Structures are given as structure tokens and as C-alpha cells.
Amino acid sequence: MLSLANFIVRRAKFVLFGFIGLIALSSVWGFQVFGNLQGGGYDDPNSDSATVSELLGTEFALDPAEVIVLVDLPGDANELAANGAPKYFELVTELSDHLAKIDGVISVDNYYSLGSPASLVSTDGKLVYVLVDLQNGISQSVPTALIIDEFTGDYLGAEVHIAGFGAVTKAITETIEQDLIRAEIIAIPIVLLLLLFVFGSLVAAGLPLFVGGLAIVGSFFVVWGVSEFTDVSIFAVNLITGLGLGLGIDYSLLVVNRFREERAAGNSVEESTVATITTAGKTVIFSGLTVALVMISMAFFPQYFLQSFALAGFTVVTLAVIGAAIVIPAQLVLLGDKVDSIRIFKRKLVPSDKGIWEKIARFTMRRPLPILFVTILGLSGMFSLSTDAVFGQVDDRVLPKDSPASVASNLLRERFDGRASSPIEILVQGSDEAINDYIVLVQEQPDIARVAIVPTAEDTAWVRI
What is the model's pLDDT at position 317? Predict the structure, then answer.
């Protein structure tokens, strides 16, 4: 650490502006990360459900529609016109033709083109399906966004809603982006006020925001690079912004306070910086290493949702440590005592061994067992409150109720009987008698509307239920 400290003191400008330059350059690509992130990744690729999904594609050549367009007609879908044809046939067909012209769309099927099956019309007869199949192997977010932006709302007197995995993913991504902006608008002023109170000067209070901002932007670049080759969850952004700002404040406080203590002891700026790096800097590095190892442990889970947390957490912690242990000391060399410029309070800014925290520490050390007992009791009580928690999948229900994707998904739940268009798929092998017994057993389960064997022309040993 001493060699590193001496290098930072001698090359402070190079270290500071070199790091800022690299982060600034990375921002050119880093802010493109939002278009690459995915809304899924919650399923175990080694689970039975993933195996079934794979078999449906390989054994039954099944390629489910990625986008579900729901058309809420002015009248009954089976109502006949004067010529004897369905009254709304032309409306739905015209919509399907427009959808088919979008780049990335392979095929479009609708209620009428599929022979008016009961599973594709709502119980009130007015809401019908249009199924849009997108090209595999491309970024499906682009055609999905075009469909949502162009067709949601009124269409020739009918009301169009867009559902499906692609629509929900797009809505979740947009909601997270809006929430991040809203959180920053609210949180940053509050955090700045707290920083002014804790650090005591405007210049010192800006250092944690500096570290956090650089760590966040740099992490966006790393995540963008990885997302070019594999799937990364959109929720990685939330972790980056939260950890980046939090660790920036935590680590900066350690470094700045240590520097102030050294200066108060009569050491020069250079000597104070070296002492800061070899003491507080070492603390920051070991603390960051602990957090980074915890984050990287999530890479061992099979879901890329959690693997994305490992990538995002490890990256932002690493950059926050570099910023606090290397870049801030370089700033301190250049600023010197000006780090305490634009003071908010007249009190001494050097940390004191006396005060409320000293009293709390001494109180705790005098009564370790009672404090331990009360703490364990309190944590146990909090844990007991979580025993009734019910966890579920991340789907449209995480969206605001007025979100178009949420509204469309609720229409599927409320106006279609048994969700026959998107049923639970079961693949079985065995004798006819055993399969029939299994069907009867499933049919007897509560909340099951129908159970049936799906006929197929494919040559396979599997039976699709």
C-alpha cells in the first residue's frame, strides 16, 4: 500500500484525470445499456419447466407467439354482416396485415384465420386474440416496441391492447427507467443535505457523489459490454445505482475523515495522504473485497437474474473501491485543506472521540450481554413477521395497475375462461391407461378448468396435455 500511496501522491493529476477520462469515454457506450437489458431470467434453465419448454420446441415444433394483441370489438365477434360474413372480419384482418408488415414479424394469426376457436374469444364474445410470432435470434424489443407504440389504443373503432412477455418486459424496463429518474430527483437533494451535515463543507460533500457517479457510469459500461454477448437482467441497474451511491458515501467518509485527522496532527498534505491510503484506504479495500465476494457468490445460481446481480454488484463495488481508495486521495493531494472549503458549520470538522457515538459505544461495552440479548430478540421478532410472506414470479403484477401491459394482462385473466390460449403444458410418457389415469387425477385438482390431450402430427414419444 505504501508504494501505491507514494505513486498517487507523485502522479495525482495523472491518476485523477486518467480515471475520469476512462469513465467519460465508457459513458458513450454505457448509457446504451438500457436497450440491451432483459426483463426475464427468473427461471432455472435446469428445471422441469425449462425442459418442457425445450421439448415443446424440439419434439412438437412449437414456437409460441411472443406478442399477444387483444382486440376489443364494438360488438360480438361472431355477429354476422348482411353478406353473411363475420361483421368484424375485415377489421381484424386489416390489423393483422399491418402487423405482418413490421420488420421482425414472421407470422400473424387471429381469431378468424384460425377458424374461430372458443379459446381465442372472451366469455362475453367481444375480445379476440391476434397472435404475433417474432423472428428468433434477433432483438425482439424493437418490433415489440413498434407494435406497442403504433397500435395500442383505438383502431377503426376497436380498442387494441398489447400483452405477452415482450410487452410486459418493455413496460418493466420503462417503469424502472422512470423510477430511477424519479428516485434520483428525490434522493439526490436529500442525500446532498445529509452529506453537507455529515462532511461539514460543500467541497467534501461532493466527493461521495463524485465517487458514486463514476462507479455507476463505469458499471453501466461493463454491463453493456456483457449484455452484447449474453442476457442481463434490467434489475442490475437498480443494484448499480443503489450500491454505487451508498458505497461512495460510506467509503468517502472513511477516507476524508482520516485525512482530516492526519492534517490536524500537523502532517503535510502529502504525508496525510500517504497515511490515509495506508490506513483508511486499506480498510476500504478489505471492506469492498468482502462485499464483492458476497455479490460474486450469486453467479453460482443458474438464473441469469441473479447472475446479473453478481455482475452488477461486483463491478460497482470494485469501481467504488478504486474511486475511494485511489481517486479521492489524488483529489486530496490537489485540494489539500481546500477540501473543507465552503463550510456549512463553524464547528471543527476533524472527527472527535467525544459525543453521542462515544457514549453509545461505551454503554454497549459495559453491558454486552443485555445488548446482545435485546438485539437478538428484536431481530427474531422482525424475522417472525416475514414467515407469512408469499413470494411469486416477476410478471405484469409488478407494474402499476394503470400500465397498458398490466391492463392487457388483467383482461386475459378476467375475460377468458381458463386461459385456454396460454395453458399449463404437461408432457408425459407411458401407457394409454397410465396417461388417462393421470389426466383424471389432474382434472380433480381445484381451480382446474379443463384437461385434454393435444393432438399432434409430429413423430414423438411424448404426449402433450
Answer: 92
**Model pLDDT, residue 137:** 62
283 and 206 in a single domain? The answer is yes
The answer on 323 and 210 residing in a single domain is yes
Q: State whether 11 and 34 are in the same domain.
A: yes
- What are the angstrom distances between the C-alpha of 435 and each of 236, 422, 438? 44, 22, 5
Please state, in angstroms and rounded to a whole number, the distance separating the CA atoms of residues 76 and 96.
19
Structural domain that includes position 458: 426-465
Contacts (Cβ under 8 Å, ≥6 apart) of 437: none
Strand partners, 162: 69
Bridge partners (DSSP) of residue 427 are: 464
- SS3 for 39? coil
267 phi-psi bin (left φ>0, alpha ψ -120 to 50, beta other): beta
Q: CA 126 to CA 144: how far, in whole Å?
A: 24
Low-confidence residues of the chain, pLDDT below 50?
none
This prediction has a pTM of 0.71
Across-strand partners of 86?
80
